[in-house]
Design brief:
There is one protein chain. By secondary structure, this protein is α/β, with parallel strands linked by helices. It has a single domain, classed as Response regulator (Rossmann fold), CATH 3.40.50.2300. Helix content is 42%, strand content 22%. It contains five helices and seven strands. The radius of gyration is 13 Å and the shape is globular. The relative contact order is 0.16.
Length: 129
């Protein structure tokens, strides 16, 4: 169904998200360290990225901005998640969706599928997987 990259430093959350996505037919790619986000994104070219805004004692807004400013990666939809309301900051740098933790899995899956479909429709036919 598609490849979803999950970025979180909480191993319980990574496990939960991986299981949820795989049960729904997605391939899950996980990243837990900030320094791995850009190279893994380039290598994997996921359909959607789900990223915790606070990762390994680091605010990832700068990384989110870097993803949105990179011509090769800018069209990949991003869902930012956090236990604090950072929606305005995320929206200001171009993040596609923001979800406040805790969230309902069904709501997340709805957002993933909507963003994934939109992303696929915007790609040239030869690049669609």
């Amino acid at each position: 169904m598609g490849k979803i990259m999950v970025v979180d430093d909480n191993t319980v959350m990574l496990g939960f998200m991986t299981t949820l996505l795989e049960l729904e037919g997605y391939a899950a790619v996980t990243v837990s360290r900030p320094e791995d986000i850009m190279p893994v994104t380039v290598a994997e070219q996921p359909d959607v990225i789900i990223m915790d805004v606070h990762l390994a004692e680091q605010d990832t807004l700068a990384i989110l901005k870097e993803l949105k400013n990179d011509p090769q990666l800018a069209t990949i939809p991003i869902i930012a998640v956090s236990g604090m309301d950072r929606s305005e900051e995320c929206q200001a740098i171009g993040v596609d969706e923001f979800m406040l933790k805790p969230f309902m899995p069904a709501k997340l899956l709805e957002k993933i599928e909507r963003l994934r479909q939109s992303h696929l429709e915007s790609m040239p036919a030869a690049e669609r997987s």
